[in-house]
Design brief:
heterodimer; A: alpha/beta; 3-stranded antiparallel β-sheet; 26% strand; B: alpha+beta
């Protein structure tokens, strides 16, 4: 079943010299899929993710997510759409330093006016799953990078979104923490069936995906699927990357 | 965590950001409350019964006007301050948008946060105001010359007025600020603090213009002091200086720094590279802040200085050279008794004084004529040299008002001759000279004082309703400012205007009345001045707080290359010095020019008052500087080293 459909997407940054960040991107993502987007620096991967995630507007083309066209929604409805259908994980975590780990996780529920009792139930379940139950009452500056990213993941899934958008989630982490984070994402994908879209330039992180889409200079370049063997998939990714030259 | 709890957390856990804003809000509330407290004070309603001196209309109006001033300025200051604090949280708002906060929820969040700070500030401000109220009453009673003091009362009305006024103010600000944030694309908000900065540029022409405008403005103000009829010059001068100051910060400063950057032997010398390159950005970023701080401070300094000089004892003395004037008609039988009484009381109180009796003639065409002998007596008690006249048709003009004195000093519109018309007599007099001190108090009757030879004085007939002349007993008392007690006793001894046969005037009473009027102005201007100053400090604080985060990253990377603790201290000290003192120095310059111009308008010295005032504010700023520098360095050292 199709969850996301991107049609003829263009993104041009206006300025003295207009810059085409994305041109004619078409892609479809099925429900429950774990898709990676890779490409050299400046190839437009983050722009693509931002456009899909509705935090940046496309210059032309369509994004259809779960049967809706978010870019056509009013601000009020778009907010509801983001709040209910999407979850975000960023390289820099984007957690609020004035809130505790627990408060950060339940923020989406707070905005949705969920009853505090239900929030507590949800947050305990998810924290247990991600192994952060023991730091729930700590502030963000008191925890490690890996813990911060797991907190961000918890926040991204607590409201059971249709799609999780992850922008270089392992970029700021050491290899052990990065591996843990990818394991968690992979677990969420398989256990909860949540669709995940991941932007990365780390081949190891990318190897957790079912499919990798490569883009170069804002254009679709290639895509490869993971077979049964993750090691082989990893090798294939490296091959494409060396061809891409970046 | 409910939405409300979230909003409360945002405020409570951002207290370092919001503390300056909260304190300035509280201060506004407190000042407003103190005024309301005074306006509704039972002893200050209408005529004062506790003292012979009444709180006049002006005082009452003064109090209320300052309340309005505080309210209006608080509104704009707080709005600006909330605006800057919200800008700082752009990234946070971007993140909330990402998480799907709806525009309505965003407005609600900002509204709740603002109201929360506002409500707390109202409670806190009134509370501090109440604690200080007893002290304020003592100070006010002193300034207004109410020696029995003012009673303390529970100011329910003042509280209600303050609460409702500031509820309205914070409500309006809350509604307006939700408009400030606006809902942009979250990506712009998220990236807003990461955008690389463009190299600031400045125009040579505008830099030059800024200096020209300021100098021109100064010149116009000086020109006004010698051409006081051209009132339009004042706003013109102020306007020029304000425009000039703006360009001084936005253009001239950047231009100068860029110029320094090209001088490699200066620019590449040790930490100069860091200081100057950093300053260029800081100047451009903070131009508006610097501009506002210096203009606000200049207004505060000049305003307080002007009003303080109005309350200076010199002012009353300027219009009346005599401490006591006892006027007696020929029919007054108590004349001798009263004079003895005055002398006795003054001696008892150990005042050193001089006294003289004169009998001038009032002339129909608005002149007051003194014989040369009488006048020389007056000159003597006032400590001026004797005058002489060559013949009977010569006369000396003596100023009796400040305006006249100034005219005489500048030799403006002085006629060479004067006609004296009394009944059938018409005498033509030539003006020999003018003296340059006040010889009489002509403020009330507006008569001109002239001196003629004793012989000529005899020739002038008496006025229509006069048989003999009235005697004027004049006293000059050293330290007359302290003669209030004696004066009160004397006033009690001489029932006022007994059948109009005598009159008793005391300078100290005149002075106290003026002091009371001016006291109101002082209270107003000092409190408003302090408020302005606090807001300026709060703006600086908010700026520093934003810079701190950026500085931390910058110095962390520089420290890795190798920057010693002392070098860091030097760089930071220099930068903070500029932030703290550049606007104040400009403000001082403006106010000093204003004071010098003011000095030319009044004939007593306001140097002491001005120096005292400016020193006070500068020392406040120096203290503020050291506290902030200490905290800044401690924070950076902890993060970096």
């Amino acid at each position: 079943m199709e969850l996301l459909n991107v049609c003829d997407l263009d993104k041009i940054y206006k300025g003295k010299v207009p810059y085409t960040a994305l041109s004619n991107i078409n892609l479809k993502v099925n429900k429950g899929e774990f898709v990676g987007i890779m490409g050299p620096s400046g190839s437009g991967k983050t722009t693509l993710l931002n456009t899909i995630s509705t935090i940046d507007a496309p210059s032309s083309g369509k994004v259809i997510l779960n049967g809706k066209e978010p870019h056509q929604l009013s601000k009020e409805k778009l907010a509801l759409f983001r709040r209910r259908e999407l979850g975000f994980v960023h390289q820099t975590f984007n957690l609020l330093s004035t809130l505790t780990v627990k408060e950060n996780i339940i923020l989406p529920l707070t905005l949705d006016g969920v009853h505090p009792q239900d929030m507590n139930h949800e947050v305990l379940t998810i924290a247990e799953k991600l192994g952060i139950s023991n730091i729930l009452n700590k502030y963000i500056y008191e925890i490690s990078g890996g813990q911060a990213q797991r907190t961000a993941i918890a926040r991204a899934v607590i409201h059971s979104p249709k799609l999780i958008l992850a922008d270089e989630p392992t970029g700021n982490l050491d290899s052990k923490a990065a591996e843990d984070v990818m394991e968690e994402l992979s677990k969420i994908n398989s256990e909860l069936g949540t669709t995940i879209m991941l932007v990365t330039h780390d081949a190891i992180a990318a190897s957790y995906c079912d499919r990798i889409i490569f883009i170069k200079d804002g254009k679709f370049y290639n895509e490869i699927y993971c077979g049964d063997n993750r090691k082989v998939f990893y090798q294939k990714i490296l091959d494409v990357l060396s061809l891409l030259g970046g | 965590m409910t939405f409300l709890q979230f909003a409360i957390n945002n405020v409570l856990r951002n207290k370092r950001i919001y503390i300056a804003h909260f304190l300035s809000s509280s201060l506004s509330v407190m000042f407003f409350f103190i005024y309301a407290f005074l306006v509704f004070h039972p002893d200050l309603q209408g005529e004062l019964t506790t003292t012979s001196i009444t709180l006049n209309m002006l005082g009452g109006i003064g109090l209320q006007t300052s309340q309005y001033i505080i309210f209006i300025f608080s509104f704009f200051f707080l709005l600006y301050s909330v605006g800057t604090f919200l800008k700082k949280r752009n990234k946070e708002f971007g993140l909330l948008l990402l998480l799907g906060i709806s525009p309505r929820q965003m407005n609600k969040l900002i509204f709740i946060e603002n109201m929360l700070i506002g409500m707390t500030a109202i409670v806190f401000g009134i509370f501090i105001g109440l604690i200080l109220s007893k002290l304020i009453l003592i100070i006010v009673a002193n300034i207004l010359g109410i020696y029995k003091g003012l009673v303390f009362y529970l100011p329910i009305k003042a509280m209600l007025l303050t609460i409702s006024a500031f509820m309205l103010l914070f409500l309006t600000i809350s509604v307006l600020t939700t408009k400030i944030v606006g809902i942009e694309q979250p990506i712009d908000l998220l990236k807003s603090d990461k955008k690389p900065k463009v190299q600031p540029k400045a125009s040579k022409a505008l830099s030059f213009l800024s200096i020209t405008f300021i100098l021109l403005g100064y010149f116009v103000e000086f020109y006004y002091t010698s051409h006081t009829n051209l009132f339009i010059l004042i706003p013109m001068g102020v306007f020029l200086v304000v425009i000039g100051t703006y360009f001084l910060f936005s253009q001239f400063s950047v231009y100068t720094l860029n110029f320094l950057k090209r001088k490699e032997n200066i620019y590449f010398k040790k930490v100069n590279l860091l200081t100057i390159s950093e300053l260029v950005y800081r100047m451009k970023d903070n131009a508006i802040l610097f501009f506002m701080v210096s203009i606000i401070s200049a207004i505060a300094f000049t305003g307080i200085g002007t009003f303080m000089s109005l309350g200076n004892p010199g002012l009353s003395e300027m219009t009346n050279p005599f401490s006591y004037t006892y006027i007696s008609s020929p029919e007054n039988k108590q004349e001798e008794k009263h004079l003895l009484e005055i002398n006795k009381k003054l001696k008892e109180a150990e005042f050193s004084y001089r006294t003289v009796t004169v009998a001038p003639k009032e002339i129909q065409n608005n002149l007051l004529v003194f014989s040369l002998t009488d006048f020389n007596h007056i000159a003597n008690v006032l400590g001026h040299p004797k005058e002489t006249l060559k013949d009977d048709n010569q006369t000396i003009l003596v100023p009796t008002t400040v305006a006249e004195l100034k005219k005489f000093k500048n030799k403006e519109n002085i006629s060479n001759s004067i006609d004296l018309v009394q009944r059938d007599t018409d005498i033509h007099l030539r003006v020999k000279k003018t003296v340059s001190y006040l010889g009489w108090d002509g403020k009330d009757d507006g008569k001109r004082m002239i001196v003629v030879s004793d012989k000529m004085f005899e020739k002038i007939p008496l006025g229509q309703n006069e048989d003999t002349l009235w005697n004027y007993h004049l006293f000059t008392v050293k330290d007359w400012e302290k003669s209030e007690e004696v004066t009160k006793q004397l006033e009690n001894d001489f029932p006022i205007y007994e059948e109009g046969k005598y009159a008793f005037k005391a300078l100290v009473v005149q002075w106290l009345v003026e002091k009371q009027e001016n006291g109101m102005l002082i209270i107003t201007s000092v409190l408003v001045g302090i408020l302005f100053f606090t807001f300026a400090a709060s703006f600086l604080y908010s700026r520093l707080y934003t810079d701190l985060e950026r500085d931390k990253h910058q110095y962390m990377s520089i420290a890795k290359i190798g920057l010693t603790k002392n070098e860091l201290k030097k760089v930071i000290t220099r930068q903070l010095c500029i932030m703290f003192f550049l606007p104040i120095v400009i403000a001082l310059l403006h106010s000093i020019i204003a004071f010098i111009a003011l000095q030319k308008l009044v004939s007593f010295s306001i140097v002491m008052d001005s120096v005292f005032l400016l020193t006070f504010f500068v020392s406040l700023q120096v203290m503020y500087f050291f506290v902030v520098r200490w905290r800044y360095l401690r924070y950076l050292n902890k993060k970096i080293m």
